[in-house]
Amino acid sequence: MNPLEVSSLVKRFGDRVILDQVELTVGAAEIVAIVGESGSGKSTLLNLIAGLESADAGDIRIDGVELGSLDDDGRTFMRRRSVGFVFQAFHLLPYLDVAGNVGLPLDLLAWASAERAERVAAMLSAVGLGSRSRARLQELSGGEQQRVAVARALAHKPRLVLADEPTGNLDTRTAGDVLGLLLNEIRAAGAGGLMVTHSSQAARRCDRVVQIVDGRVLAVP
Amino acid sequence: MTGSQDANRSPIVRLLGSGWLRLHRVLRLAWLDLAAWRDAKGRLAVAIGVLALGTGMGLAIERVNAVAVAEFQAGMTMLSGEADLSVRGPRSGFTEEVLARLVLRSGVAAASPVVEGVRTERSSGLEIRFQGVDALRAMAVQPALVPAVGDSALRLTNLRTDVVFVGPRLLERLGRQVGDSIELLDVSGHQRALEIVGLLPGTPGLAGAVVMDIATAQSIEGLEGRLTRVDLRVQPGVDPAVLRSRIAADLPSGVEIAAPAAQASAEAQVSRAYRVNLSVLALVALFCGALLVFSAQALQVARRRSQFALLRALGLTRHELLSLQVLQSALVGAVGAVLGLVLAYALAALVLRLMGADLGAGFFRGVAPEVSFDLPASLTYLGAGIAASMAGALLPSLEASRTEPASGLRPGALEAAWKPLGHAWPGLVLIALAGASLAIPAREAVPLGGYCSIALMLLGVVALTPRVLVIFLAVLDRPFFGHQPSPVVRTALAQLRAAPAGPAVSLAAIVAAVSLAVSMMLMVNSFRVSFETWLAHILPAQAYVGEGGLRLSLADQRRIAASPALGRVEFMRIDEVRLTAGRPLVAILARDIDPADPGARLPLVARAPAELEASEGLLFVDSPVAKAWVSESVAELEQLSPGQLVDLPLGGHPVRFRVDGVWRDYGRQQGAIVIARSAYVAATGDPVASNAALWIAPGYSFAQLQAALAWLAPRASVRDTGEIRQYSLSIFDRTFAVTWSLVGVAVVIGLAALAGNLTALVLARRRELSVLRHLGFTLGEVSRMIALQALVIVVAALGAGMFAGTLIGVVLVEVVNRQAFHWSMELHMPWGALSLLALAMCLLATMTGYLGGRGVASGEVVRAASEDW
Amino acid sequence: MRFLPNTGRRLWLLRSLATPLAGLPLVLKARSASAAEPVYPRVIEGRPFVFPRDHGAHLPYRTEWWYVTGWIKGRDRQPLGFQVTFFRSRPGVAEDLAVASAARQLIIAHVALSDPRRGRLLHEQRVARVAFGLARASQATLDVALDDWSMVMDATGSFFARIRAREFRLDLVFTPSAPPMLQGVAGFSRKGPLASQASYYYSLPQVSVRGRLEVPAPDRRSALALLGGETRVDTVTGRAWFDHEWSSQYMAPSVVGWDWVGINLKDGSALMAFRMRDAAGATVWAGGTLRRVDGSERSFEPTQVQFVALRTWQSPRTGTRFPVAMRIDLPDLSVSLEPLMDDQELDARAGVGAVYWEGAVQAHGTGGLSGQGYLELTGYAGRLQI
């Protein structure tokens, strides 16, 4: 079952059609990059897939489950279980330490504490922050914060990871490191990945690139 | 142009030139910057509203008191006219011989005798305070009291015994005209119809007065052959002070002489403590307003830190940024204070209409003034409102001005900025000072120490609030019965623990409001419970007879006692005497009381030791000194304690009594002294009684007793004790209506502050809530989390507020009331009302949090996380 | 309805009493019947006089006065005129209340001192109700008082007046030289065309006076001078005229004022004459009595008494013209009166409400008669009633 299947998706804002009959599939261990001009609907597509906005028509299936058939709580549980997020601005919770942030998705899924601790430690060492689990966010650099975000996105073994300009706030070198880490982790977990990016360099490191033009998704060769 | 460039110029150029430019620029910026408050409208509105309330209530109380006291004093001085000196006796007056001696004394140019009285007007039910004058003698001293009717040089109309002159305002209140009558019930129970034949001048003090012939007043009050006052004009060239002391030496005991103005202020003094008390409470409201401005501004500053950084980067000096903030808060204060002024005058007019000039406390009977605009007072309170707002904004504004241009938004900047608030020592020092200041003695019945202590206590608790929250959170940070709390709870607490500054800042106003409400509730409740207990003690009989000014002759007393429906009767005579010149009259209650067991009739708080009595018995075998029981206020004011001797001016002579005990009297703030009626009759030869306590004989009903004593009508009626008790309690409640309304205001402030600040806090956390939603928190979970946080905050606030409120309440009961009113009471926690308050605040907090969280997390959640910082 | 009394002289007092009463009916309408006008006893002819009882007050009557006027001299032998009067009035306004202090009886007292060197009167008046032990009028003998002013007769028939005015002090002892001179018909004195317009009236002429006068130096008029020690204490002696008159009834409405004179003649005889004037100055009623040295008395009929103005004086203060010098023509006798000084006007509008002239006069009569007395001129400052 593919982590993500989008078919005939339509989204309008008033009279304006943002997304028009979008078809998109992301397979397991596949990472798709979405590129497009500002305002082309990239972020809207991501929000729809995350279940944070509702579509006007069409289907979105995550791990085979049709989102349209779920209410808000159902979509939230779906997100909690099957989706991981990486934001441009990291969006870590400042009042939690590194381990707390990574462990939060596990808490939501009520993991037993021993397994949770083990998983958090594994994730942190995977992103190279194994020694800093008790650190506070203020002590971390931007790159380190985004690594924590990557660890949080994958901690609960999601089927799909959504990333919105994950390297937009980072310098080029750090950006390369973090992107590599993100892609590796998604692939290693066998999840699907969908990444909105402006950077053609980043897009190239994905398995596939699609472009949104006039609300339609076109494959970029 | 920057500040540093300015600094290079000469001070004068700076002052004249760029000083204005700078001010102009800052004003302009302040105006533009106001737009930033747009999304803080709610908080701003609450702050403005509370400032308006504080200013409004303060000024309203000030105005009502000012006009009441002015009217009261004008009444006393205007009624004395051009008198240089005024001789005043007790309520029962002094003999007319005193007047004769005064008239014939050298140095006295003119003397005008007066008989003052108070009676209820029959059809209007108004209490009428009247002056009986001798028109012919008054013309030389108080010509205003002798209005000309027709063309009468001898004022013959004024000499008639069936007429009155009424002030225009009272006439309007009575709804009568010249030519109509007023009807007063005299001491012997007869209705006396008096024709209104003329108007007194409409000047302050006279506009509400009633003047009649002195003979009429004597017969209505049963004071034939007696006077209550003589106003004197001193001959030119004679020193009034010298004459005064000479006359004073010659006056009967209990009669004083002083300048009318001095006496007026002495009488007005009685109500001062009450007035100061209310004004202080209004100031507390203003203080709450300042705290609300503080929290609004603090949150605003925290939210706009990056904007300030930008402004600094664009070239605004630190000083200018501070001015900007302070100016804005001044503007907020001005808006609130102007609203407050409008509110004040409306409120004052309403209060005067509904409760009377004494705010329901009964000090200024018969005075019915109107609100007048007063510029200095209005400006003072306007200034106070603005100052409160600026003071509230000062700390956050200083913090804002410290913003470094480059320091955009580092996470936790708010926490760093408010770190000083987390210290416990300033609050602890303030509270320690609060305790110490209780040692400051009262001045002229104004408990300075008590008020000081309350102010310091409030400040201290407010300063301690962040610390309290932190401690409270630490206490919460442990597993419940071994259970790991849910992620919702843990996240909620983790968030609060990591960033307590925001909530702590908004807590201040809530804590202050809760403290105020709790302390007032505690005081009023203690008073009310004590009052009820006191009533039960002071009214032991089943029924009473005794309308104001009733006189029961010996024959009446025998006839009452002979009634078979009566099991037991105790008569009481009420008189008023002056113990010390310059002090108000003290009530003498001559009762049928068992000297060996006064506790059966009086709520004693202190008693002379029994051994003393025994030894006294040996010492004074021949002339045993009668016992007197003084009320707490007499004990305080006259420095009397059990065992001491006191001379009471009875029948114009000092009569020696031994203070046997001190009793609690809530009935007469000026003080009361109980003596045995036999002692009173022995001293005065006057066996008339003013009221009777009745016990129904076994087998008889109240109705039968009533019927048996029906012959007393219309002089008096038999009233059921329960009814009297009910009536007394309703008077009590009316008296404390103002206090209760202040409690109400405090609660409203607390709730408004709570709701406003929670909403603000939730709004400030939009992004974070959005992230939680992304991570898979359901809408319900986010809302519950916020609700839980709100609950935690409010529980902390309630805890701190109730703690402080209880302490303040104890200060109010044990210090302020004792010093201001000289009465003691037992502490009674108003558990019911407190639980209700706590419940209401918890519910409101939870609901506001839940709904606020829901609103934010559902609508804006998507965009928030995607927005750039 | 007008309440002008017909009791002859001292009308100014009654006027002040009458005016408010004139306003009363308006008020009375609204009052209960119990507060009605009191019943005053009528003055009737043939009432026997009993002394000292009749020296005392006759409280039921509406009006009563004790009036002493006279000439005195101090150590400097300069003549001074004086007037001490106690009026009693029962205004009928507080009759229904049985309280001692009710204003059922009023005492009005008036003193004046005429000193030619001062050129004007020193005078003072007081009003008080009979109450508080300060104002009294005994019914047993002459004993009236108002605060520290009093006039009291002792058992021998002598009486004293004690006056503590703002500007002067008087302590005078009066010793009558002859029994009372009953005016009119045995003390029944007609004052108008109706028999009811009358009073009980007797006089004590030729009363010798001695006593003490404290008065500020003439050039110092202020009360401060009195207090400051610039006071002259003088022993005085002289001759006085005492009147006592009471009545209840009213006089003719046409009367606006009257002229009255009482003269102690040098030879020991005494003359009293009066006339009631209407608005035109014509005499409505007149009367008089001459007591000769031998004690015999002659009463004059209204037509036998003529008052002729010799000289008028206009008051600079009120503008009123008074005929201060007069000639009185009687059968077989004519007496000219010349004032001790012209300005003996009393402006009492602020108090009892009248302007009148009351002054010491020197009398010269036909047949070499001469004497000293007092002249009273009322109703010249316009009509006494409004």
Question: What's a concise summary of this model?
Answer:
The complex is a heterotrimer of chains A (221), B (869) and C (386). Helix content of chain A is 37%, strand content 27%.
List keywords for this structure.
heterotrimer, B: 869 residues, alpha+beta, 4 domains, ten-stranded mixed β-sheet, nine-stranded mixed β-sheet, 29 helices, elongated, disordered N terminus, C: 386 residues, mainly beta, AttH-like fold, 13-stranded antiparallel β-sheet, 23 strands
Question: Describe it for me?
Answer:
The complex is a heterotrimer of chains A (221), B (869) and C (386). By secondary structure, chain A is α/β, with parallel strands linked by helices. Chain A is built from 7 helices and 10 strands. Chain A has helices at residues 42-50, 72-82, 98-108, 113-126, 142-155, 172-189, 200-204; strands at 4-13, 16-26, 31-35, 57-62, 65-66, 83-86, 160-164, 192-196, 208-213, 216-220. Chain A has a 6-stranded mixed β-sheet, with helices on both faces. In chain A, strands 2-1-4-5 form a 4-stranded antiparallel β-sheet, covered by helices on one side. The mean pLDDT of chain A is 87. In chain B, strand 17 (645-650) and strand 18 (653-663) form a beta hairpin. Chain B has 869 residues and is of the alpha+beta class. Chain B folds into 4 domains: 34-81 and 276-407, no CATH class; 85-258, no CATH class; 465-540 and 720-869, no CATH class; 548-716, no CATH class. Chain C has one domain (11-27, 50-377): AttH-like fold (Beta Barrel). In chain C, strand 16 and strand 17 form a beta hairpin. Classes of the chains: A alpha/beta (221), B alpha+beta (869), C mainly beta (386). Chains in contact: A-B, B-C. The B-C interface holds B 96-97, 99-100, 103-104, 113, 134-137, 149-157, 159-163, 179, 193, 195, 197, 213-216, 218-219, 224-225, 235-237 and C 16-17, 19-24, 27, 30-32, 35, 91, 93-94, 96-97, 99-103, 106, 108, 127-129, 131-134, 147-148, 223-224, 227, 349-353, 386.
What's the SSE blueprint?
The complex is a heterotrimer of chains A (221), B (869) and C (386).
Chain A: E1 4-13, E2 16-26, E3 31-35, H1 42-50, E4 57-62, E5 65-66, H2 72-82, E6 83-86, H3 98-108, H4 113-126, H5 142-155, E7 160-164, H6 172-189, E8 192-196, H7 200-204, E9 208-213, E10 216-220
Parallel strand pairs in A: 3-8, 3-9, 6-7, 7-8
Antiparallel strand pairs in A: 1-2, 1-4, 4-5, 9-10
Chain B: H1 3-8, H2 11-33, H3 41-79, E1 85-88, E2 94-95, H4 97-104, E3 108-120, E4 127-133, H5 135-138, E5 163-166, H6 168-174, E6 181-185, E7 191-199, E8 210-213, H7 214-221, E9 226-227, E10 229-234, H8 240-248, E11 256-258, H9 260-269, H10 272-303, H11 305-313, H12 318-354, H13 375-401, H14 413-417, H15 425-437, H16 448-476, H17 487-498, H18 501-538, E12 543-545, H19 554-561, E13 566-577, E14 586-591, E15 604-607, H20 610-619, E16 626-631, H21 632-637, E17 645-650, E18 653-663, E19 672-676, H22 677-684, E20 691-696, H23 702-708, E21 718-720, H24 721-735, H25 737-764, H26 766-775, H27 779-821, H28 831-859, H29 861-866
Parallel strand pairs in B: 4-8, 5-7, 14-19, 16-18
Antiparallel strand pairs in B: 1-10, 1-11, 2-9, 3-4, 3-10, 5-8, 6-7, 12-20, 12-21, 13-14, 13-20, 15-18, 16-19, 17-18
Helix pairs in contact in B: 2-12, 3-9, 3-10, 3-12, 3-13, 3-25, 10-13, 10-18, 10-25, 12-13, 15-16, 16-18, 16-27, 17-27, 18-24, 18-25, 18-27, 25-28, 27-28
Chain C: H1 11-28, E1 63-73, E2 79-89, E3 106-114, E4 121-129, E5 135-137, E6 143-146, E7 149-153, E8 159-164, E9 169-175, E10 181-182, E11 188-190, E12 198-216, H2 223-227, E13 231-247, E14 255-265, E15 270-278, E16 283-291, E17 297-300, E18 306-314, E19 321-330, E20 333-339, E21 345-347, E22 355-365, E23 370-377
